[in-house]
User: Which sequence fits this backbone?
């Protein structure tokens, strides 16, 4: 299957970065025109939309709280764990992109230091689902970065050959990503622009992950059975982490993630031992 994917894998070109970079520039220009490049004004210009979206989306608290967990790499990546065996090319790009995501997310949060909604507004004035996050790490949304980094890699990896199908495929994944990303507003953890900016950055980092892997192929060892014990250990640790999450919060999404990881752990262990 990996050979088939390699054959159809779209080698990204530079122009794919033009649109997301343009969107980031446009957001910057709009904020500049509204004199909203400082923290107080940045929060103020989207205050209305935050309260509106939070009130509407939070009407489905269990659904939103389950979906928002997919922004956690420890919950999202187990759903893709089986690709380590069958389509390692995905994980080669994911590893590069994930490292970039972690780096940029932390750097940007430290740079902007925007207070989260719970630190800026009266906590009784909007809906908070789950743990109250009140630090100064609102911009950008790390969950949105993780979601779009991953979906971007999947989007280009499984891109259909026909143009009509490509459009439907891309729109479907982007819409799915936005639905999941905006759960961060629903649970009261981020402002709308945090999510939008994080989603755009995630898309860019997903592309960069593909670029790096295509250009340098530094993760070629991922597809080698010789290194399966590395993933067996990683999957085992991930399973323990998910068990702990289940014990603490007992969410359906944790069970699904855990089951996916256990299946992958069984397959990779069986494949390695069988050799």
Assistant:
């Amino acid at each position: 299957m990996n050979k088939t994917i390699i054959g159809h894998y779209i080698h990204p070109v530079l122009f794919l970065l033009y649109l997301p970079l343009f969107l980031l520039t446009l957001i910057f220009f709009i904020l500049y025109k509204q004199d909203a490049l400082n923290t107080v004004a940045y929060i103020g210009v989207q205050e209305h939309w935050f309260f509106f979206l939070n009130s509407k989306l939070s009407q489905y608290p269990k659904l939103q709280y389950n979906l928002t967990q997919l922004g956690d790499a420890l919950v999202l990546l187990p759903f893709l764990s089986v690709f380590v065996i069958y389509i390692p090319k995905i994980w080669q790009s994911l590893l590069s992109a994930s490292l970039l995501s972690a780096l940029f997310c932390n750097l940007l949060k430290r740079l902007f230091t925007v207070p989260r909604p719970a630190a800026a507004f009266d906590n009784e004035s909007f809906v908070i689902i789950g743990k109250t996050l009140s630090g100064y790490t609102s911009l950008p949304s790390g969950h949105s970065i993780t979601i779009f980094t991953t979906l971007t890699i999947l989007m280009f990896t499984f891109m259909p050959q026909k143009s009509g199908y490509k459009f439907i495929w891309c729109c479907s994944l982007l819409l799915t990503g936005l639905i999941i990303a905006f759960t961060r507003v629903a649970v009261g953890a981020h402002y709308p622009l945090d999510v939008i900016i994080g989603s755009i950055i995630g898309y860019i980092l997903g592309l960069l992950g593909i670029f790096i892997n295509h250009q340098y192929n530094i993760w070629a060892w991922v597809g080698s059975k010789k290194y399966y014990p590395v993933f067996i250990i990683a999957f085992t640790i991930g399973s323990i982490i998910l068990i702990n999450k289940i014990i603490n919060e007992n969410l359906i999404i944790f069970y699904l993630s855990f089951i996916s990881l256990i299946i992958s752990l069984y397959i990779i262990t069986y494949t390695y031992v069988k050799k």
